[in-house]
Amino acid sequence: IRCPVKECDEEILHGKYGQHLSSHKEMKDRELYSHINKGGRPRQHLLSLTRRAQKHRLRELKRQVKAFAEKEEGGDIKAVCMTLFLLALRAKNEHRQADELEAIMQGRGSGLHPAVCLAIRVNTFLSCSQYHKMYRTVKAVTGRQIFQPLHALRTAEKALLPGYHPFEWKPPLKNVSTNTEVGIIDGLSGLTLSIDDYPVDTIAKRFRYDAALVCALKDMEEEILEGLKAKNLDDYLNGPFTVVVKESCDGMGDVSEKHGSGPAVPEKAVRFSFTVMNIAIACGNESKRIFEEVKPNSELCCKPLCLMLA
């Protein structure tokens, strides 16, 4: 046993401890002593142990936490442990780690949402390979997945394309296919060419008009609900709505290789699109406008109908 008296710190056999202690006249509480770990392994740090050893060492504490959780928190052991961990982190001023943990506990996760990553990739003009390089670098340097992988971005992108949202017309539209997968076609099919027209070859991705309109309105769901709420029209959720649409065709310039030594190609990109100008709802005899496009000439509110290389 190690003697607890200051400036003594002597190691004494258990049997001779009482005799040694009597030599310290100044000791009031003579039962104080601390065991020395003689031989055997030194006690390892909890986090360096195997999961089984961790469980073994924390068995008693786990039992107490379980009893507390059942008594006070309706049996939610996870919430008790997480909160203890948060408090411990904040007590040591580890606020960044605590904020991340709190985000995970609230189901937000510490990474960015795939749609946010997609917006970053588009707005900073990153190609897929450039984005992937950035994603890998950030993950390697920080050890955390802040950006989402490319496949998650592709899934998020699908939700923005016409044909993603299921819908049905009541009554059903006559002579309209229910198939929204149109695929690659000749963009000028259905256009009657006059004799003077310049011969042009096209490939295009064309969407069904009704599928594109449904996708645009689904995209605007929040604005529509906000508009209803602002005008106190929550009772009119089922419509009928009047949607005013402006159609437009927009040349997107040439898409020849701008950088590097590639050949100059004569291709032009063309987009047929529409813009939702305003949405109104019929309330009795009057019509109330619940949405109006503030910048109707901006290309940001163009919804695609046909994307074509000519």
TrEMBL record:
Signal sequence, start to end: none
Annotated cofactor note: Binds 1 divalent metal cation per subunit. Mg(2+) or Mn(2+).
A GO CC term attached to the entry: endodeoxyribonuclease complex
Database matches in PROSITE patterns: NBD, ZF_RAG1
Record field: catalytic activity: S-ubiquitinyl-[E2 ubiquitin-conjugating enzyme]-L-cysteine + [acceptor protein]-L-lysine = [E2 ubiquitin-conjugating enzyme]-L-cysteine + N(6)-ubiquitinyl-[acceptor protein]-L-lysine
Residues of the DNA-binding region: 39-106
InterPro entries tied to this protein: RAG1 (IPR024627), RAG1_DNA-bd (IPR058552), RAG1_pre-RNase_H (IPR058553), RAG1_RNase_H (IPR058554), RAG1_Znf (IPR019485), RAG_nonamer-bd_dom (IPR023336), Znf_C2H2_sf (IPR036236)
Keyword flag Zinc-finger: yes
The keyword Transferase is annotated on this UniProt entry: yes
Domain writeup: The NBD (nonamer binding) DNA-binding domain mediates the specific binding to the nonamer RSS motif by forming a tightly interwoven homodimer that binds and synapses 2 nonamer elements, with each NBD making contact with both DNA molecules. Each RSS is composed of well-conserved heptamer (consensus 5'-CACAGTG-3') and nonamer (consensus 5'-ACAAAAACC-3') sequences separated by a spacer of either 12 bp or 23 bp.
Protein family per UniProt: Belongs to the RAG1 family.
Protein name as annotated: V(D)J recombination-activating protein 1
Origin species: Stercorarius pomarinus
Species classification: Eukaryota, Metazoa, Chordata, Craniata, Vertebrata
